[in-house]
Structure formats: structure tokens, C-alpha cells
Amino acid sequence: VVFTDHVFLFLPGLAFCYSIINGPTNATVLAGSEARFNCTVTEGWVILIWLSNGNPVLSISSSQGPFETSGRFTSQNYTDSNGFTSELIIHNTQLSDSGKIECSVQQANSRFAFLSVQVNGSLAIKNSTLTVKENETIEIACEALGWAPAPDITWMTNDSFIDKSKYVTQHSQGSNGLHNALSILTLTLTDTEILTCLADIEALPNPQNATVTCIFVNST
To answer: In the record, which residues are listed under signal peptide (predicted)?
Structure first.
């Protein structure tokens, strides 16, 4: 019942007592992949709206089903004893999709989560092999281009991590919100070694890597 200037309005569907049981949870994905969010409501709901950074991207009517505003935002729906669950699917995620994902139902508190879309850039060491002489100090540069967020750079020799004091990493802002990094490793070798530069962000299941084989040549 809504009171407006002493007039009683009875609005169908608003008399039900319903609520959001489970809202969406935070997600971190790589750009180009799918992101999925679930929202479960009790019986009696009329309209469920999904919003991305405050903009409605998909609406679902209890009587007519989903209304899609963009081909990249679709849904799958499930009904069981716990209530109605709407699964929002964001296809081909983009860096600009990062932000607040909200599930809103009329006359009920909305629930929200945050989406972080990350970009897996390139990683390269200029030379794949390098000849190193005895007592020679070498500098090896590893370049990461087009990442979001800025990647965490580490170095390994064979199967062991190299102490951070042996390398310096500089970060710079690239284009379109992407980040670059240049890491320079300084070493004096006593044997032939395989050196590996690793770049990591949360969305990557395993760090990206680039390697260089340093062939040690004894001066004698």
C-alpha cells in the first residue's frame, strides 16, 4: 500500500514480503573471458535488475523472463526450494567492466559485488641465449607491456628465486589504462644457468615467463 496525498494505492506485487537471500560475490577474471554472478531471491519478486557500475544491463520479469539491453550481458535462471536464482553472465569482459555489479529487486535491499577485469600483456627478454665470461657482470632486461594491473615481476635461476636486491623494476603507465614494467637483473655468474623472468597478476592461474640461457665460458 502506498500513501499519496491521502489516496490509497494498491500496487500488485508490492504486498509480498520477499528478500534477497544470497547476493553476488567478488570476481577477478582475465579480459576476454566470462564473468558470472548469482543472485537468489525468495518467492514474490516481480522485477529483478542487474546493474554494472550503476547502469542497468539486464532486467528479469517474473512473468515474462529476461530483457537484455546488450548482447554481452545474458542470464541463466534457476528455481528450487530456496527461491529464484538469476545468474548474470558477462561475455568477453573488458577492462571497462571493472567495478560494481549490483542485483536489485523492488522493495528489497540490493546486494552488490565487485568485478576486477585484468589484462595479460606481453613479456619478453631480448636475447634467448647469452655468452658470459668469467668475472663478467651482466645486465639482463625483461620487458612487460600492456598489463592491468601492473604485474609483479620476479626472477628465478634454475629452480630458485633470485634475491630482490639483484634486480630493479620500473613501472610506467601505458595507453588505455594499461601498465608497462622493465626489470633489470644484474649478476656475476660462475656457471651456465637458465634465468627466468616471471610476471604475475591475480587472474593468471600461473605466472607468464620468459627465459634466457646464459652460457658460462671459463677464461682458461
So the answer is: 1-17
